Amino acid sequence: MIVELGHFALILAAAVALAQGVLPIVGARRGDERLMAVAPYAAITQFLLIGIAFAVLMRSYIVSDFSVLNVVQNSHTDKPLLYKITGVWGNHEGSMLLWVLILALFGALVGAFGRNLPQRLKATVLSVQAWIGVSFLAFILTTSNPFLRVAMPPLQGNDLNPVLQDIGLAIHPPLLYIGYVGCSISFAFAVAALIDGKIDAAWARWVRPWTLGAWLFLTVGIAMGSYWAYYELGWGGFWFWDPVENSSFMPWLAATALLHSAVVMEKRNALRIWTVLLAILTFSLSLLGTFLVRSGVLTSVHTFAVSPSRGLFILAILVIFIGGSLALFAFRAQSLSQGGIFAPISREGALVLNNLFLTAAAATVLVGTLYPLLVEAITGDRSVSVGPPFFNLVFTPLVVPLLLAVPFGPLLAWKRGDLYAAAQRLMVAFGAALVGVVLVLVLAGFDEVLAAFGIGIAIWLIVGALSELASRAQFGQRPLSVSLARLAGLPRSAFGMTLAHLGVGLTVLGIVASTTWNEEVIVDMTPGETIIVGGRALTLDGYRIEDTANYSSQIARFTLRDGDRVLSAIETEVRLFTSRPGEVTTEAGIRTFGFSQLYVSRGELTAEGVLTVRAFWKPLVTLIWLGAVVMAIGGLLSLSDRRLRVGAPKPARGGHVVAPAE
Predict the structure, then answer these.
(1) CB of 346 closer than 8 Å to CB of 414
(2) SS3 for 476?
C-alpha cells in the first residue's frame, strides 16, 4: 500500500505541474493576480508530492521490499545501508525520479524566495518550468515507472552494479543533477522574458544567482566524477573525453559563458540577445546530456541501458523545448535591442572575448561527441570514433588564448578601458610566469617547451587573479593599514571571482604537471620483488583475501620505501561480488605526497603467484581537483554576496523605487 502511495503522489504531482503550467501563464496574459498567485503554491506542492514519492522509493530500498521491480533489479539484502540508499538513483527509473525532484525543488525555491520578482514574470517563469516537469513526469509514468510491482517477489535482489557501489558515486550524481537541472531556471527566465518581450539589466540580476548556483554544483559534480574514475577504474587518468563526460562538460562551458555575459548585461545593460540565447543553449545542452545517457545510443560506464522507445520520448522532449525556445527566440530577436555600446578594449570587450572562446570550445566538444553518432545513423558504420587526440588538438588552441586573456578582464574599466594600464598592473604576474617558464626549461630541458608554456600560463592565472585584488586594495600605493582596510571592505563577489580564476590556474598547473612528468611502470611481480617509481622503492609483500557480506576482496600489499626508510604500506585490491558472479571492481592504492601521488593498481594474478602491477608517479595531480574545489568555493562566496540576493527593486513606502546596490 505504501508503494501505491508513492505512485499516486507522482500522478498527483503531474496533475499539479499541469495546473502550474496553465493557470499562472493564463493569469499573466490576462493580468489576473489570483491565477498568477497559484504559481508559487503549486510549485511547492509539486515538490512535496515528488518528495513523498522519492521517500517511498527510498524506503523500499532500505527495507529491501522485493515486491518492487526496481528494488529487485538494483538492490540486495547484504548490501551496506549507504549503497541501498544510493541504489535509489543508481538506475534509470530512480535517477529520473531524483531528476524531477531537483527540478521541482528549484521551482519551489523560486516560489518561496522569489518574493522580489515581479508577479507577472514569476508566474511565467514557474509556468515554463512546470511544463518541463510535466514532460518528464509523463516520461516517468509512461515509460520508466519506479513503482512497478512483481507478482511473485523473489527472496533476493540482483544487487546494484558493483562499479556504482562507491562513496564517489553516492555523491557525484546528485551534485551533477543539481547542476544540470539548475540550468532550467535560467532557461525558464529566458523563455519568460521572450514571451513578455522585456529583457533588461534587472532580468540579468535575477538570473545570475540561479546560474551561479547551477555552475557551482556542476563544477563540483564533474570534479567528483573525474576523481571517482581516477581511483575506481584503475586506469590512472582523470579525463578520457568520454561522450558522457562531455555531456556534462558542455553545459559547464556554456554556463560559464552565461555567467560572464549576465555580468555585462547587469552592469552595462548590453549583450541582451546573446545572454538570453546562452541561457537557452545551456539548458539545451543539459537536456542533450540527459538524452545521451538514457537513449541507448552510447555504451559507457556512465550510461543506463534503456530501450530505444525511451530515447525517442526524450528526443521528443528535446525537440519541443529546444526547438520551441529557439523558434521563440528567432521570432522575438528582431524586436529586442542589444542595449549599451562599448569599446573593444573594455571589460565588456574582455567578457565578450571570453564568451566567444567558451562557446567555440563547447561547440568543438559537441561536434566531436555527436559526429560518430551521426555517421552511424547515416551510414551504419560503427568504426568511427573521436577520442582524446582530436579533442586535445582542437580544444587546446581555443582555451589557451582564453586563459591568457582572463587576468586582463577584471583590470579593465567598463565601456572603455586602458590596456596599457592593465598590463602594467599585471607586470608581477608576467614576471612570475616568465620565471616559471625559465625554471622549467632549465630543470626539465628545452624539449619541454610546451610544458614550460603551460606552467607559465598556470602561474599567470594564479598571480594575475591575486593582482586584481592587490590593485583594488591599492597595495604599494597606500599605507599597508589602508590597503588592508580596503581589502577587507571589498564585496564577497570580488573574492569569489578571484578564487574562481585562481582555481582555474591550479587546475591547469595540475593538468600540465601530471601529464608531462607522469611516470608509469607496468611489470609482472612476485612477492619480494621491488620496482622503482617516482624515485621510491615499491616492494610487493604478498596477498590476502578478505570476505565481507557483499563481496570477496583479493588484496595485494606493498611496502613503499625512500632509501632505507619505510614510508607506508599501500594496498590495492580486486573485489568479486557474490551477488553478481563474474563482475569485479578494482580499488587503486594511492599514497599522497603534498600535491603529488603514487598510484598503484593491480591486474591478473596467475596460479604461479605472478601479479601484473601498474604503478604511476603523478606530480601535482591533486591540484586538478583542488582547483575545482577552489572554483566552487569562489562561486559559493559570490553567491553569498548580498548584492546577488537583492533581486528586483522593492517599492518604497511612498511608491518610489529603491535602486539595487551597484
Answers:
(1) yes
(2) coil
Q: Identify whether the C-beta of residue 282 lies closer than 8 Å to the C-beta of residue 376.
A: no
Residue closest to 169 by CA, chosen among 66, 85, 295? 85
Residues 283 and 320: their CA atoms lie apart, in Å, by 13
Q: Is 188 helix (H, G, I), strand (E, B) or coil?
A: helix
**pLDDT, tens only, 47-60:** 999 999 999 999 99
Instruction: With H, G, I as helix, E, B as strand and everything else as coil, classify residue 394.
Output: helix
Read off φ and ψ for residue 156, nearest 5 degrees.
-140, 150
Which among 623, 631, 392 has a CA at the least distance from the CA of 510? 623
Angle between helices 388-405 and 449-473 (to 10 degrees): 30
Q: Which amino acid is at 253?
A: L
Find, among 302, 198, 190, the residue nearest to 240 by Cα.
302
Question: How many Cβ atoms sit within 10 Å of the Cβ of residue 23?
Answer: 21
CB 572 within 8 A of CB 587: yes
What pTM does this model have?
0.93
Q: Residue 61 is which amino acid?
A: Y
Q: pLDDT tens digit string along 265-316?
A: 988 888 889 999 999 999 999 999 888 887 666 655 555 555 677 888 988 9
Look at the alpha carbons of 486, 487, 492, 493 in this order and tell me if their dihedral is positive or negative.
positive
- Lookup: cell for 522: 607496468
CA diameter of the chain: 89
Cβ distance 347 to 246 under 8 Å? no
Phi first, then psi, for residue 32 (nearest 5°) are -90, 105
Q: Three-state SS for 401?
A: helix
Residue 339 bridge partners (DSSP): 270
Identify residue 642 by its one-letter amino acid code: R
CA 136 to chain centre: 21
Contact at 8 Å (CB) between 428 and 463?
yes
The count of other CB atoms within 10 Å of the CB of residue 442 is 10
- For residues 77 and 157, is the Cβ–Cβ distance under 8 A? yes
* pLDDT tens-digit map of 563-578: 989 999 999 999 998 8
